[in-house]
Amino acid sequence: MHPRCHTVTIARRPPLYLRPLLLAVVLASATGCGGDPTITLAEAQSAAAGQIRAAAAAVFPPGYTLQPLPPLPLNCTDFRDRATGRVQVGVTFWVDGVATTGNDAYFDAMHRWWDNHGWTSTANSRPGDMFTNAISGDGYLMSLRANAEAHLAIGATTPCLTGDGTARHLSPPPIPTASRQPTTAASDPRPMPGASPPGITGMTDLQRTPNAALPDLPDQHR
Fold it and tell me: With a threshold of 0.85, does the pTM exceed it?
């Protein structure tokens, strides 16, 4: 299933006479999507950030830091680009403190981590484009990519959520203790991915396609 349409169903308390039927429907939906049927968007965002941190710890050498971009909630759409009423969020970090000469090794290590943790690779554009992604059994999409200056970004997109999953629950993703504090949106000179080319609809596309434009790095990251 395309990750953009992957759903985690949220069930409200039904009348007693409907509960056996609806329980079967909810269990079937949770099994098909591989997710927790009661997860909120905030919990999914936290899970995505945790997956990124776990992968980064295995992929990058000591001394790396993760510099977060603000989380971006998006409306999920169907194959006709119509809103479904579900919401997902993309969590993305710049990877600082690593040598760009090691990028090929980092990409290889990322694939090994995915293979060892039950993720399925869905794209690998190397060597023409330094981009790769994979999907987990419960519908999270993770990517690693490099911009034109070979600086890396790692990110993950949640499944589409309903019910409690709304933008008002969002908070900045947690980052490792050793990482720098994030810059504020007002002071960060990097443009957001909203200025991407036509067909790129937000930060989650950084995880979905190699054609999504990464923000430019400020001088101190070059």
Answer: no
